[in-house]
Each structure stands twice: as C-alpha cells, then as structure tokens.
Automatic annotation (TrEMBL):
Residues 1-24 form the signal peptide. Its main location: secreted. The keyword Flavoprotein does not apply. Keywords: Hydrolase, Metalloprotease, Protease, Secreted, Signal. It comes from Christiangramia sabulilitoris. CDD domains: FN3. This is M28 family peptidase. GO terms for molecular function: metalloexopeptidase activity.
Length: 450
C-alpha cells in the first residue's frame, strides 16, 4: 500500500489549483436543506400540467381554461398565489406585459400581449436588490408562426418554468436579505420579447439587479448523439457587457478583464457554489453568451447591462426541440413529457435555489474597486465600503489563464489591503463582500486604478 504524506497531498492540491482555505459559505447547512427540499415529483406534476395545455405559443388561445397560453399563465399565477398563501403572503404576484405587433419582428403572426408572470419575495435588508430566476411559459411547434398545432414544450421550456415554481415553493420558507424574483417569461420563441419587457421594467423601476439565472431546457439527459449524462450542465455567460463604454473597452487593453465581465463573475459564483455544495455535479462554464448563433432570455438583461447567465442541460436532443409531434423514418419527434428526466430537472433546480439563496443572504458587492501596484513587488486593492453590518471583504486572485478564482484571502472589515509579494502583472484580482452569516457577494473585478 502506498502511503501519501500530508506534505505530498498539499503539494498535489496546490498543483491542481484547489484552495485549501475553507469556504465560509459551506458552513450554512440551510443550503443542504434547500437541496433536499426540491422535489422531483412536484416538478413532474408541473411539467405534465404545462404540457397539458396543448400549446403555449405566445399567440395561442387566451380565453380557454384548458388550452393555450392564457390558461397556462393563469395557472402559473394561481400556483404562485398558492405558494404565497403558505408563507404569510410572502410573494407579490403580478402580470407584467407588453403589446407586440407584426412590425416588432418577423416571427410575430398577429398583435398580442406578451405576458410575464412575476412573483417577488421581498428581502428584509435590501428590498430593492433583486436576484432573478426565470423559465419560459411559451412553447412552439415546428413552425413558430403556427399557434394552433400541439406544442407541449415539455423540456423547452416547461422544465425551466417548473423549476422556477419549485424554487419558489422551497425558498419561500426562508427569509432573505435581498429580494428574489421567480418569473415565467413569454414570447421567447418569437424574439425574446418577455425578457426584454421585464428587463426594461427593471430599468424603469430602478431595480438593483444582482443577476438573472435564466433556465431554458433543464430536463433532457439524452443527447441527440446518444450520450446520456445526468450530472453535467452548462452555464453560459458572455465575456463583457455589450453596452460598455469606449473608455472601458480601451482600459481593458491595458488592465485586462476580457474574461471578467459581470455575467462571467456570476457564472463563476454559481460554478463554485455548486462544486462546494453539490460535488456530484459537473458544471461546465461556457465562455459565450449562448449556444452558437442561438438565443435565450438572459440576453435582453445583458443588453441593458445586467449580469445574467443561461443554465441548461449539457446534451441537447434536437429531435425533441421545436418539432411537431410525429414519427418519421422510425424517429420520434416532439418535445413530449417522456423526454424529460425529472430527477435531473430537480438537480438543476437545486443549482438555482442554492445560488439564489446565497446571493440573497449575501451583502451587496463593493461598487467601486481600484487596483494598484505597477512596478512594485506587491498588489494593492481598495474599495468603497458596503452599507450595512458586514463581516468584511475577501480578495480573490488567479493565474491569468485560469478559468476559476484559485486563491482567496479574507482581509477583515477594511477598505484597502496590500497583498505582499504578489506581483500585479502575473494574476487577475477581484474583491467580494462577506456577510456575518458567511455568505459572499459576487466578485467585483477592479474598475479603476491608483
Ligand atoms: Zn425553444
């Protein structure tokens, strides 16, 4: 038998870039309770119910109680209200809607209201800060203009919608510092209209958006290529915000940040949280806005400068997406309930829930972080203090080629710190705020120098 010395193990650990410092967040056992409370049965019930509305095309029937998007959104709203009645009316539930006409895009067959169903769980300390989980209400047939043919959209995207409702069920049993929004968006398949509407609503109402976790297809484990995998999932994030200024673009050339935009930091946070609390899962960081040339409802939020990522299955099955239900040459087409793995949807719902909880329990991130240390042997950081009673700040750093933060140091409740012997040229840096409960904000990449 080979005996490994502790020193050898430590060396191995540092070679693989794993930090030994304990993550304060892994001491909150409520996160494990949340993971355990997410129910696959409840997700299955909701997916079957949503698929049962026949079609949820954004332009489908709005009058019927059993078929079409009108029936679907009324049912979702009543479910959010049921959840709220079990937590002392902790959810504020409402429709947020915008009118679209064929002039608004080439996939709009007629005028209609694009209606989102919003449920807000207000935070006790920072009610105007919002972390958002979204799924989509709408579905489509082979032809997206066809609003009458059956389009059960069991995976795309009843799975994301059901996960969002289940997260609301579980998280509504807790109180948070910041607000959590659970939302069903519409008009996704015709041009991301629901997301656009809610992002503009957020801007207009001056919401301080921490980020949006957009869930689009979280239930399929069988790829079109036959790969079956119920552990992996993807986190898509764009590199930097599309609305950055020319000055910010220029600064990046000299100070870095090409892979450190706000959405990427959100993706890293989720990745780290999952690795800590759900080590059996395999989160894949995808360094791009979305799938190649395709879109999702986090994008309209990114367009307005909000952090946002897409969370979804690792292996897509194109025979089950955007397809009329039929059999052709022995292949079954259609997005039917049989194609959804409810246990997997439960896992990805838990991924969302623990990150909503951590972010909503964490203090705000420091807004202004500056870095210095040019031609000096040490790196210096300073930042604007966060309002509120917090434990302090944590500095993160990593090799310039590393995808995840590799090193961190809790520096206490100060507003500047020097990392002795750490040369600014050789690493990338960031700062997070740490609450007294151990929960951490997103990491902020320096946005100024001194
Ligand atoms: Zn779709």
């Amino acid at each position: 038998m080979i005996k490994l010395s502790p020193r050898f193990l430590l060396a191995m650990i540092s070679i693989f870039g794993v930090s030994l410092s304990t993550n304060a967040q892994d001491t909150d056992k409520r996160l494990y309770e949340i993971i355990d409370d997410i129910s696959a049965d409840s997700i299955e019930y909701d997916i079957r119910k949503l698929a049962g509305f026949g079609t949820r095309n954004t332009f489908s029937d709005t009058v019927s109680d059993t078929r079409g998007i009108g029936a679907a959104r009324r049912w979702i709203k009543s479910e959010f209200e049921n959840i709220s009645s079990k937590c002392d009316d902790c959810l504020e539930v409402f429709y947020q809607k915008d009118y679209v006409t064929p002039e608004d895009g080439d996939r709009i067959p007629k005028e209609a209201w694009v209606v989102n169903v919003v449920a807000i769980q207000k935070g006790a300390k920072y009610p105007n800060r919002y972390v958002i989980m979204s799924g989509d209400i709408d579905s489509r047939a082979s032809n997206t203009m066809d609003f009458t043919t059956d389009a059960p959209g069991a995976n795309d995207n009843a799975s994301g919608m059901a996960g969002t409702m289940e997260a609301a069920r579980v998280l509504s049993q807790y109180e948070f510092d910041s607000s959590i929004i659970y939302v069903g968006l519409s008009g996704e398949e015709q041009g991301l209209f629901g997301g656009k509407g809610l992002a503009e609503f957020a801007k207009k109402n001056n919401w301080d958006v921490i980020g949006i976790l957009n869930n689009d297809m979280i239930g399929n484990i069988e790829g079109v290529d036959g790969v079956i995998d119920n552990r992996s999932f993807r986190i898509f994030s764009e590199p930097v915000p599309p609305n950055e200024t020319e000055r910010e673009r220029r600064m990046r050339r000299f100070y870095g940040g090409e892979v450190d935009g706000i959405s990427r930091q959100l993706a890293r946070y989720i990745h780290n949280n999952v690795k800590t609390h759900m080590p059996e899962m395999n989160p894949m960081m995808i360094y791009r806005l979305d799938r190649f040339g395709r879109g999702g409802h986090h994008r309209p939020f990114n367009d307005l400068g909000f952090a946002g990522v897409r969370i979804m299955e690792a292996h897509e099955n194109y025979n089950r997406q955007h397809q009329d239900i039929r059999t052709e040459n022995g292949i079954n087409y259609g997005d039917v309930v049989e194609g959804v793995n409810f246990e997997y949807a439960k896992k990805l719902t838990a991924v969302n829930a623990i990150n909503l909880a951590s972010l909503a329990w964490a203090p705000p991130a420091p807004s202004k972080v500056e870095i210095g240390g040019i031609v000096e042997p040490s790196t210096k950081l300073r930042w604007e203090p966060v309002k509120g009673d917090i434990a302090g700040y944590k500095i993160y750093w990593r090799d310039t080629t590393a995808p995840q933060w590799q090193h961190s140091r809790f520096v206490g409740n100060v507003t500047e710190f020097t990392l002795e012997g750490i040369v600014i040229d050789n690493f990338l840096f960031g700062v997070a705020a740490v609450g007294k409960n151990g929960h951490e904000s997103l990491v902020v990449f320096p946005n100024g120098t001194f």
